[in-house]
Specification:
With 256 residues, this protein is an alpha+beta fold. Helices cover 15% and strands 31% of the residues. The strands form two sheets. Strands 4, 5, 6, 7, 8, 9, 10 and 11 form an eight-stranded antiparallel sheet that branches.
């Protein structure tokens, strides 16, 4: 049963994944219990976990749960350190409205989903603002990731800030062009990836912030890997089932 509901309030059916392996290696008796009792558990009564990046003002840092510059689970407040190995199962670009005063995320929209005012900056790149509020509209990337060392936890949503865009665009290119050892184009979940954080000084004003400094490809995730069937494909199915709502959620857990 998918975790997310459509905007109409109806639970979306879980889509089929083309080319998915047909066997799990476990007894077929498990299949009859899949999703049992989860009908009323949805986005309205569950904390959706984001993979956050702890900043100086983050709750997890202020309350001395973790230090600045680590990955953490926004639902459980568990810290994963400054390096984490993940398997992406979903990707979607979105438009994010940032508060002009605080920089906090206010709303998230489909790309080109609302009218905007457009101006060119000094480098000739377009910049967008909301026609009513005047707040800045920026394009960010939403990922659903599975922790390689804890795939049973399902997926975490991940949307880094503007400072990581250059690294993320390079990562997106690698995701698109990666090839499995057999010579076939790999799916988005065909490899694990190691993400590392660092502390950077702000170019304007004082202080520092945590951001992604390195993304390295790990091992190929073969369809014969038991994790492929037991964790990765179910996580992708859930992300796909709530694709529109997942990407448009605003609680990113990693404001810079």
């Amino acid at each position: 049963m998918p975790l997310f509901e459509s905007k109409s309030g109806k639970v979306e059916p879980t889509p089929d994944v083309q080319g998915a392996p047909t066997g799990t290696g476990a007894s077929d008796d498990w299949g009859q219990y899949a999703g049992m009792g989860l009908d009323d558990l949805n986005s309205k009564n569950c904390s959706l976990p984001w993979l956050g990046i702890s900043q100086a003002q983050s709750k997890i840092v202020v309350e001395n749960i973790a230090q600045m510059g680590v990955f953490f689970n926004s639902a459980t407040m568990e810290s994963y350190g400054n390096t984490i190995e993940v398997i992406p199962v979903y990707f979607k670009p979105v438009w994010v409205e940032k508060d002009s005063s605080t920089g906090k995320t206010l709303n998230t929209y489909e790309v080109k989903g609302i009218p905007v005012n457009e101006e060119r900056n000094e480098k000739g790149y377009p910049e967008y603002t909301h026609p009513d509020s005047g707040n800045k509209i920026v394009e960010l990337y939403t990922y659903a990731l599975v922790l390689k060392n804890a795939p049973e936890e399902g997926f975490l949503l991940f949307r880094p800030g503007l400072s990581a865009l250059r690294k993320l665009r390079a990562w997106n290119s690698q995701l698109r062009t990666s090839v499995w050892p057999n010579g076939m184009q790999a799916p988005i979940f065909g490899f694990s990836w190691k993400l590392s954080l660092g502390i950077e000084k702000r170019q304007q004003g004082s202080g520092s912030y945590a951001t992604i400094v390195s993304i390295q490809r790990g091992e190929a995730i073969s369809p014969t890997n038991t994790m492929f069937v037991s964790s990765i494909l179910p996580a992708r199915q859930q992300a796909l089932a709530g694709a529109g709502n997942v990407a448009l959620l605003t609680d990113e857990g990693s404001e810079e």
